[in-house]
Amino acid sequence: MLPGPKACIASPDWVVSSHIHPSDCLEALDIFRRAESQKDGSQRFEFLARGAHPASELLTMTTPRKYHFRSCTVAVAMFASIPPWFLEPTMERRRFAPNDIASLDELREAAKQIVATCVQFRGRRPLVGWQEMGRLSKAIGVFVWETRSPIDGALRPWNDLMLPRVGNETAPMREPSLEA
User: Which pLDDT tens digit goes with each residue over 69-109?
Assistant: First the structure.
C-alpha cells in the first residue's frame, strides 16, 4: 500500500474553476487503465522525460502521458519536465533525474489514492493532487489536475501531437516502435 498523496492542492495553476468532478477523475483513471492494458501492469518500466536516454535494460515509457475525461486529467510525468513554478513551494528543490523505474500498477494505485483523497471540494476551489513515485529517486510524478488548467496546457503529451478525441475523452496515441 502506498502512502497518501504527497500534496492535495487548490492552486489556480492546477484548478481554474469549480467544475472538476470526482466522477470525471474516475473515468480518467479508467482511460489510463484501458490505454495501457496491453502492458503487464506489474512489470517494471523505465519512465523517461522526453529526450532522456535509458539507463537500464527495462522497457521504456516516455512521459508526459496524459489521460483526460471532461474536467479531469490524470498525468504521469517526470518532475524534471515540470516547470518549477507549478510545483508546491514546500516541495524540496532538487535536481530531478530524467528517468526512474515503476510499474503501471504502482502508478495507477497512486492516481486512485489522489482521486480518493484529494478530489473534493473545500471552500471555493476543489482540491487536486500529486504523488512522488519511482524506485530510484522518486523522480516520477503522478498528477491529477483540472483539464485545461495552466499546468495541463504547459505539459504536452509524449508524442507532441494533439491526441484524437473520442467523445469527451482523449484517446492516447501508441508508443513509437523501432520495428518496421
Answer: 999 999 999 999 998 888 866 565 567 899 999 999 999 99
**Angle between helices 104-118 and 22-35 in degrees, nearest 10:** 180
Dig out the grid coordinates for 166 from the structure.
Answer: 473520442
Query: Strand, coil or helix: what is 7?
Result: strand
Pairing of strands 44-49, 121-122: unpaired
Residue with cell 483523497: 117
Report the first-to-last Cα separation within the chain, whole angstroms: 40
Q: And the C-alpha cell for 167?
A: 467523445
Which SS3 state, helix, strand or coil, does residue 121 take?
Answer: strand
Cβ count near 160 (within 10 Å): 8
For the chain, how many residues are written?
180
- Containing 78, the helix (H) or strand (E) segment is strand 72-78
* Residue 162: count of CB within 10 angstroms of its CB: 10
Beta carbons of 77 and 83 less than 8 angstroms apart: no
> How many other CB atoms are found less than 10 A from the CB of residue 125?
18
For the segment 129-164, what is each residue's pLDDT rounded down to a tens digit?
999 999 999 999 999 999 999 999 999 886 543 344
- The reported pLDDT for the residue numbered 3 is 45
Give the CA radius of gyration of the chain: 15
